[in-house]
Task: structure prediction
Amino acid sequence: IIEILDEILIDRPDSIEECQNLVDGGYLDSMDIVSLVMELNEEFDININVIDLTPENFNSVDGIVSLVEELM
Result:
């Protein structure tokens, strides 16, 4: 997940693993989230639905990991 985020994010915090505000802090915009969802769906063979697109699921690496684990 960190590698996928590194590919998507150009201006990212020094330690993306510790960042708790990927959405609220402006690191992920709507286009980044679309790219991230596509990459996660492909990499982990999951299907992230519109109802899963909440700040809680995408505001931190932990949130993204939890979502992916839940959908696997």
About this structure: The chain has a mean pLDDT of 86.
